[in-house]
Amino acid sequence: MAIVVKVVDVHKVYRLGSIEIPALRGVSMDVKKEEMVSVMGPSGSGKTTLLNIIGTLDKPTKGIVYIDDVDITRLKEKELVKLRRNKIGFVFQTFNLIPVLTALENVELPMIIKGTPREERRKRALELLKLVGLEHRANHRPSELSGGEQQRVAIARALANNPSLILADEPTGELDSENTKRVMEIFRESVKEMGVTAIVVTHNPDVSRYCDRILYLRDGRIVKEEAAKALR
Ligand SMILES: Nc1ncnc2c1ncn2[C@@H]1O[C@H](COP(=O)(O)OP(=O)(O)O)[C@@H](O)[C@H]1O
Ligand SMILES: [Mg+2]
User: Fold this and answer.
1) Is pLDDT above 80 for 127?
2) By CB distance 3.0 to 4.6 Å, which of 20, 36, 107, 206 could disulfide with 198?
3) Distance from C-alpha of 216 to C-alpha of 163, rounded to nearest angstrom
4) Domains of the chain
């Protein structure tokens, strides 16, 4: 199976004045095509830092990250913008939908930015809303949707430009346990259906059990790895 994400001995040190904060201390991991991997760990263990580095939003102090065999740590800002737009979908804890746009328009947005023709993007946005079970909410604004529904719209939006990779940071952090279950079921089904690879950061075992594999992060290092099957 092809490797979509390859992280090689990544270190990250944040500098605040004269203080150095080591957030990652030599992380190496591979994520295979169509795999859904969970990164678990306590608060401050480096989960968000790792996800932001893989998502090209931050740079490692040392080490290499490959996405589809491209060393992203060597890319220029212009190439990174293109990579983020075409290859990576982001899902955030707080959904980050645009409040004045409808669910449909929110899903269309990444395709507008990419320049997808109107008819095509409308059709695809509707298909994606259907995939997450929200075609009947297409014309609702985020404020008219529950948290779980908003996150499902955000998942549809993350899939809009047919990315190879979806990165989710605490995607159910704002949801109750019932919605957490529903969102993760739909998240899993959607990425499997579309053949997308996903990395899900969480500290909730009820979230990681929907993934294929769990990597445990502690003090900036991967300390354990296990198949999530055991939890299901
Ligand atoms: N921008 C930053 N500047 C300084 N320190 C940071 C920054 N971001 C994260 N850190 C520190 O790096 C460590 C890991 O943080 P983070 O990746 O956010 O952990 P997690 O997502 O697992 O809670 C923490 O000690 C945190 O305080
Ligand atoms: Mg975090």
Assistant:
1) yes
2) 36
3) 25
4) 32-59+74-231 (3.40.50.300)
Residue 210 has phi, psi (to 5 degrees) of -80, -10
Q: Output the CA 23–ligand 2 centroid distance in Å.
A: 11
User: Nearest C-alpha to atom 6 of ligand 1 is from which residue?
Assistant: 14
State the distance from the centre of ligand 1 to the C-alpha of 37, rounded, in angstroms.
Answer: 21
Mapping DSSP to helix (H, G, I), strand (E, B) and coil, where does residue 190 land?
helix
- pLDDT band of residue 64 (cuts 50, 70, 90) is very high
CA distances (Å), origin 153, targets 49, 66, 109, 227, 231: 25, 29, 12, 28, 27
Listed residues: CB within 5 A of ion ligand 2: 47-48
| Ligand 1 pocket member 17 (CB < 6 A) | no
Checking if the pLDDT of 232 tops 70, the result is no
Q: How far apart are the CA of 93 and the centre of ligand 2, in A?
A: 10
Kindly state the percentage of the chain with pLDDT values over 90.
97
14 CB near ligand 1 (under 6 Å)? yes
User: What confidence score (pLDDT) does residue 170 get?
Assistant: 96
Q: Which ligand is nearest to the CA of 39?
A: 1
Alpha-carbon Rg for the chain in angstroms:
17
Average pLDDT over residues 210-226: 97
Q: Please provide the average confidence, as pLDDT, over all residues in the chain.
A: 96
Whole-structure pTM value? 0.96
pLDDT attached to residue 197? 97
Q: Are 205 and 232 in contact (CB under 8 A)?
A: no
In short, whether 202's Cβ falls inside 6 Å of ligand 1 is no
